[in-house]
Amino acid sequence: MADLDMEARDPNNLNDHLKVNFDDVLGEPEGAHSADCVWRTSYLCFNGGKNCCYMFLTFICGLPLALCWGCEFAMITFQHVWQITPCMRIFMINCGCAQKFFGTCVNCCLAPICEAVGMCFSQVTVTNK
């Protein structure tokens, strides 16, 4: 809790796409202006409604959702630490062994044949007329 920044609550800019202000949603072009009092009141209603609705939803849903997401990421971490990473390590160890086995077979069996065929064709010369 000591390192919790109460001012910068999105330090990694995860939700930059949600920065929606009154000016981003409503705008009156030249020649189509409402009365100043309507425009000011619309601004207050927009911001007040947005803020009140967000606060209400966070009070109702924020804590249970935070708990659910915390549990979800804990399960993913557990799965990676205790299941996926060890399985990947076993797979990589077995693939390394198989790579050495097949590499040795190719070098012992196929390489001499390819070398012999290459020697046979190395004396072939092609001339264009």
Automatic annotation (TrEMBL):
It is a peripheral membrane protein. One of its GO terms (cellular component) is Golgi membrane. GO terms for biological process: caveola assembly. GO terms for molecular function: molecular adaptor activity. Keywords: Cell membrane, Golgi apparatus, Membrane. It is found in: Cell membrane; Golgi apparatus membrane; Membrane, Caveola. Belongs to the caveolin family. May act as a scaffolding protein within caveolar membranes. Interacts directly with G-protein alpha subunits and can functionally regulate their activity. This is Caveolin. It comes from Patella caerulea (Rayed Mediterranean limpet).
